[in-house]
Structures are given as C-alpha cells and as structure tokens.
Amino acid sequence: MEAMRILMDEHQSLAAIIHAIRHLIGEIGAGRLEADQGLLAAMVHYLDAYPEKRHHPKEDRYLFGPLKAKTGEGAAALERLAREHGEAEARIKGLEAALGRYRAGEPGGFEGFAQAFEGYAAFYREHMLLEEREVLPLVIAHFTEADWAAAEAGFLADDPLRGTRTGEGEEDFGRIFSKLVAAAPAPIGLGAGPYKEQ
Questions:
Q1: What is the pLDDT along the chain (198 residues), one digit of tens a residue?
Q2: Number of domains in the chain
Q3: Which residue segment(s) compose the domain that 121 sits in?
Q4: Domain holding 42: CATH number?
Q5: C-alpha angle 7/116/15, rounded to 5°?
Q6: What are the b/e assignments for 137-160, b being 16+ CB within 10 Å?
C-alpha cells in the first residue's frame, strides 16, 4: 500500500510545518524569539502550495472519488471532505492576508496572524483526523488490487516529498521542507536561520 505510505508521509510533513509555525508564534509572542518573517511566509506558502494544490487533488482523485463510487459507507464524511477541499483556497488566503498585515507592521498584526493561524491549525487537525480515522479505514476495507494499483501509480507519479512531478515550474517540496527545517530555530529545526529564498 505505497499510496497509503505516501499519504501518511504527507500528513506528517504538514503536521510538522503546522507544529513549527505554532512554536514560532508562541516563542515570538512570549518575547523569546525575534520573528523571522521570511521563514513564516515560506511556511505559509508551503501550506498553500503543498496540501492545497498537490495533496488534496490526489486524495480526491485516487482515494476518495473511487471509494465514493464503490460504496455509500462514509458518505457524510466524504461530503464533508469534498466541501473542505473546495474551501481550501479561501481558508489559505485568509491566513496569507493575516500574515501580510503582520509583515506590514499593522497594529495588532501579530495577534491577528496568531489567531488566524490557530483557526487554520485547529481546522487542519480535525480534517486529517477525519481522513485517518473515518475515511481511510473504508478505503482499506473496500479497495481491490486494481484500485490500489491505480492509487499507487497516481501517488508515485506525484510524490512531492521525493521530487516526482517536478517539471517546468514545479516546486521541489522535499528541498523546500529541508530548507524550512534548516532555517527554523531549535528545537523545531536546525537553527541555521534566517530563512533565505534561494
């Protein structure tokens, strides 16, 4: 079940970035860390470009869509996931706007960004738990060998953490993730910051 391994790796990388942003916000808010706004911006970009544009479409195409075609089980959960995936752009745009206000030095900008991020993080935690606890067990129960073969082909052809599908204009998310970890302060990263674009 290579598709499931890739999916869970992707969930873990997303959870790591969310945890890192939460840690940075806490340390900045407590006055123990000077803000690396470039690092925060790069992490928020990762949340946009990776899960919203690469991860969710694969889930829908290779796992959730085929599951819905096979069974009525989990219909409410699948409907909720489809709705949440459809609302993804608005959700990330709200977080990016809050970060923009913070970076522009607007009064209350940091607090607004922290609040927007906590809302985003709480949503994402519930979203991944719904997938992992309710929907993926149904995928495992109902998929045939042919279903798994199709899912694995799709996930292997587009595994952003391992650099597949990195053609013209594609981002190498494995490299980006490594750069984020390298720039982030300890204990969440290697402490080599500040973050540099190139």
A1: 788 998 898 899 889 899 999 999 999 999 988 888 988 999 999 888 887 778 888 999 999 999 999 999 999 999 999 999 888 889 999 999 999 999 999 999 999 999 999 999 999 999 999 999 999 999 999 999 999 999 999 988 877 666 555 455 566 667 777 777 777 777 777 665 655 665
A2: 1
A3: 2-183
A4: 1.20.120.520
A5: 20
A6: ebbeeebeeebbebbbebbeebbb
